[in-house]
Design brief:
The chain has 261 residues and is mainly β. Helices cover 0% and strands 44% of the residues. The strands form six sheets. Strands 8, 10, 13, 14, 16, 17 and 18 form a seven-stranded mixed β-sheet that branches. A hairpin with a 2-residue loop joins strand 3 and strand 4.
């Protein structure tokens, strides 16, 4: 006997809730020439089962916080599944601000899936529609958008696993100095493979990146220095992996970078 958890409001967003199935049986039996009907057997109940769902948390980072025109700005989008089941066919959307829309970053995009340590490789994903597709809506002075859609079964993100996306972009020529904030997030994912017609769909809408919350979106701001020269000193914490590092613990190994543009 196979049963399926109903896709109904009482079960939606109930990750962690438990339920059990109980089977009962009635039977007829002759006892001392007397026909006994509707006798009930001792019921059987399954151990508690827990409702699980995929849940994606996004962190957007860059090793640089100041940028001159013509200098590549590398970005990393880290997507971790903090839920209890696989996340399938994830869509990552990155809203890139005006002033960074002329350069097409599509050819620089790479994507990999790692275990929770961020080091152990699970899948080296292939672009151009094999494992994921890239869509770039840009080339105008207005806000532009980079979108990645995970296509193949190899792109599923297991519990605690990380989808790591790297790409580069640049400031547009002729813009004035200022700050430029990118907002990226996981805007769609599913609870099962595309072959499962009953799978659940999770949709999210980007706002300001909610940088103070650990949720489906994040933001990163770069300051433009488009005239003259600037001198930048930054530090990475090689022990914790934080870059740029804002705090360190005793015994951490730090790497300082001096940059002049």
């Amino acid at each position: 006997l196979t049963v399926v958890l109903d896709n109904i409001p009482t079960n939606v967003n109930m990750a962690g809730a438990q339920f059990a199935n109980t089977a009962k049986m009635w039977f007829d039996k002759t006892i001392n020439s007397t026909n006994m009907v509707d006798l009930q057997a001792h019921p059987g109940t399954t151990p508690p089962m827990t409702i699980i769902e995929p849940n994606l948390v996004v962190d957007k980072t860059s090793p640089t916080s100041n940028l001159n025109v013509g200098t590549p700005a590398p970005y990393t989008i880290s997507v971790q599944n903090t839920g209890g089941s696989d996340a399938w066919n994830t869509t990552i959307t990155d809203n890139i601000p005006a002033g960074m829309c002329t350069y097409d970053p599509s050819s620089t995009v790479t994507a990999q899936i790692f275990e929770s340590d961020g080091v152990t490789l699970v899948e080296d994903l292939q672009p151009n529609g094999e494992d994921f597709s890239v869509t770039w809506n840009g080339g105008s002075p207005s806000e532009c958008q980079l979108s990645l859609q995970m296509i193949s079964d190899a792109t599923k993100i297991g519990p605690t696993q990380l989808l790591i996306i790297n790409y580069q972009t640049m400031l547009d020529a002729g813009i004035s100095s200022g700050t430029f904030t990118n907002v990226a997030g996981a805007t769609r994912w599913f609870s099962a493979a595309s072959s499962d017609t009953g799978r659940r769909e999770y949709d999210r809408t980007l706002t300001n990146g909610t940088p103070d919350l650990m949720d489906f979106q994040d933001a990163y701001t770069i300051t433009a220095a488009v005239q003259g020269y600037y001198f930048l000193k930054s530090v990475d914490d090689l022990t914790t992996g934080d870059y740029p590092a804002k705090m360190a613990f005793a015994g951490d190994r730090l790497r300082y970078t001096l940059q002049m543009d």
